[in-house]
Specification:
alpha/beta; Nitrilase/N-carbamoyl-D-aminoacid amidohydrolase; 6 helices; globular
Length: 294
């Protein structure tokens, strides 16, 4: 059986980048000490979630790839002999920036990267101001432990993204994430939002017969503009199996490190029982390429 141990690091960030990175280094080491072969970090994990406001000065947080942060996480991957999925603010060229996941293999090499394709532009999530939509497509990243379908946050609401990763041979779907509540929402609305977030990703697991790993940040981050009461990131990082079964789930209020066993061979059996890929009507899906079919 092909089983791997996956580490999830759900962190509450500080305004100091170096502190956040050192905290991550300590938690990556803890995951490795507990046998993790793959460690997944949350979205934009080096800093606070800066997209709550539109501020041109914040582009200074971006880095080239390769660059200082890739050097830092490359060394951690090589030191511990693990695969690490990171999420960085990429400066590609003057005035051109991406929200980019970089995957490091066990020897510290960059196995590949994925540039976030779906970019939100909602109150407190002004990502279109900062990020150019990705241009690398939905291509899994081959590593020494398997083929990883890495997507980022807002991508997790789109079944098309998960399906294309699955059709291209991904063995896991992985979502570094930064999502939470605006404090003025009612408890009922908060519950609906969190439930929808979990259900949608478990649905991707079921529809594609693949495990899903979703790692979210946690804690309150204030809105620098004062226009809102900031974001309470809801944590709840989780691992689901290929039938959507929850294998592990983190707190919604506390930082947490989890190491979870994931059986990669189980996907083969599930796809034999539920052959959704076999029964797809690929001759009848042309309209999915339209914005709206009226």
């Amino acid at each position: 059986m092909r089983k791997i141990k996956v580490g999830l690091i759900q962190q509450a960030n500080t305004p100091d980048r170096r502190t956040n990175m050192l905290n991550l280094a300590e938690r990556i080491a803890a995951c490795a000490a507990h046998g993790a072969q793959l460690v997944v970090l949350q979205e934009l994990h080096n800093t606070l979630y800066f997209c709550q406001t539109e501020d041109t000065r914040l582009f200074d947080l971006a880095e080239p790839i390769p660059g200082p942060s890739t050097g830092f996480y490359s060394e951690l991957a090589a030191t511990h002999g693990i695969v690490i999925v990171t999420s960085l603010f990429e400066k590609r060229a003057p005035g051109l920036y991406h929200n980019t996941a970089v995957v490091f293999d066990r020897d510290g090499s960059i196995a590949g990267k994925y540039r976030k394709m779906h970019i939100p532009d909602d109150p407190a999530y002004y990502e279109k101001f900062y990020f150019t939509p990705g241009d690398l497509g939905f291509q899994p990243i081959q590593t020494s432990i398997g083929k990883l379908g890495v997507l980022v946050c807002w991508d997790q609401w789109y079944p098309e993204a998960a399906r294309l990763m699955a059709l291209r041979g991904a063995e896991l779907l992985i979502y570094p994430t930064a999502i939470g509540w605006e404090s003025s929402d009612t408890d009922e609305e908060k519950s609906r939002q969190l439930g929808a977030w979990i259900i949608s990703q478990r649905g991707h697991a079921v529809a594609n017969g693949l495990p899903v790993i979703s790692v979210n940040r946690v804690g309150h981050e204030p809105d620098p503009s004062g226009q809102t009461r900031g974001i309470q990131f809801w944590g709840n990082s989780f691992v689901a199996g290929p039938q959507g079964e929850l294998l592990a789930q983190a707190s919604n209020v506390e930082p947490q490190v989890m190491v979870v066993d994931v059986d990669l061979d189980r996907s083969e059996n599930v796809r034999r029982w539920w052959p959704f890929l076999r029964d797809r009507r690929i001759d009848a899906y042309d309209s999915i390429l339209k914005r709206f079919d009226d």
